[in-house]
Amino acid sequence: MAQDSNILEELYTVIASRKGTDPDKSYTAKLFARGRGKIAQKFGEEAVETVVAALSEGKDELVGESADTLYHLLVLWADCGVEPAKVWAELARRTGTSGIDEKKSRAKK
Ligand SMILES: N=c1c2ncn([C@@H]3O[C@H](COP(=O)(O)OP(=O)(O)OP(=O)(O)O)[C@@H](O)[C@H]3O)c2ncn1[C@@H]1O[C@H](COP(=O)(O)O)[C@@H](O)[C@H]1O
To answer: What's the gap in Å between 52 CA and the centre of ligand 1?
Structure first.
């Protein structure tokens, strides 16, 4: 079984492998076939469902909706050709920079 830290990478690999495959056999292939607008819409819907779970449902619902949101975000990245490593690198670049300091530096520009 995948190490937790690798699960997003492994899921991304599975998702990317579904490009151009039969939409009747794979939900991911169906999403790719429906296009970026639909993929982005699904991501947005799942994100809103995650917000609702956090505000008015239980932890189990929040976990489930979070997983749905992450899956759809990975499909969106794959459709746009963004590899997870790019996002990890951006997060790593931000390590050690307080969000408050970063916002102040933006306000001065
Ligand atoms: N993690 C997921 C995952 N999370 C959510 N979903 C699917 O996302 C769908 C969301 O359901 P909705 O009713 O919101 O969406 P919908 O049926 O498309 O409805 P519309 O809004 O489009 O009308 C469900 O069919 C879920 O099964 C996922 N489908 C696949 N995966 C992973 O992707 C892998 C590959 O899946 P396939 O591409 O289907 O082989 C799987 O092994 C899983 O690991």
So the answer is: 19
